[in-house]
Design a protein that fits this description.
Order of helices and strands: HEEEEEEEE
Radius of gyration: 17 Å
Strand content: 25-35%
Strand order of the largest sheet: 1-2-5
Number of strands: 8
Helix content: 10-25%
Structural class: alpha+beta
Distance between the termini: 47 Å
Largest sheet: 3 strands, antiparallel
């Protein structure tokens, strides 16, 4: 059903000479700092997986190990880490440190966050 709606919308847009624009992370407002000065509140995909870390160090995300999910929205994040496993989107190698709903520490892909994540502090700054 949704596919038909998308086709109809795209067809109507083409017929009247306009462009259909989908929402993206770059269009969303930025994450905002929590009152504690440590965490950041960001809008995210409800039910997104939270991934574990490689080894025992908790320093690097493990894209092959889901440790929980994040059903809350907005959710809070400690920091961001670039240069990790590919996730795509406007920040193709960015992951954010958080705690899943089950209490497990982990990482969420930047593509699962609607808010612009640039305001979030770097994990190693």
């Amino acid at each position: 059903m949704r596919f038909r709606w998308l086709l109809a919308t795209a067809g109507l847009a083409a017929a009247i000479g306009t462009t259909v624009v989908s929402p993206s992370a770059s269009a969303a407002s930025g994450c905002r700092q929590h009152d504690d000065g440590i965490r950041y509140w960001c809008q995210n995909v409800s039910g997104a997986p939270v991934y574990g870390s490689i080894g025992n160090s908790r320093l690097y995300p493990n894209p092959d190990q889901v440790v929980g999910t994040m059903h809350s929205n907005p959710s809070w994040f400690y920091c961001k880490l670039d240069g990790q496993a590919w996730v795509g989107g406007p920040h193709p190698t960015r992951w954010l440190r958080t705690v899943a709903d089950n209490g497990q520490y982990g990482w969420m892909k930047d593509t699962a966050i609607y808010s612009e994540t640039d305001p979030v502090r770097d994990c190693y700054s």
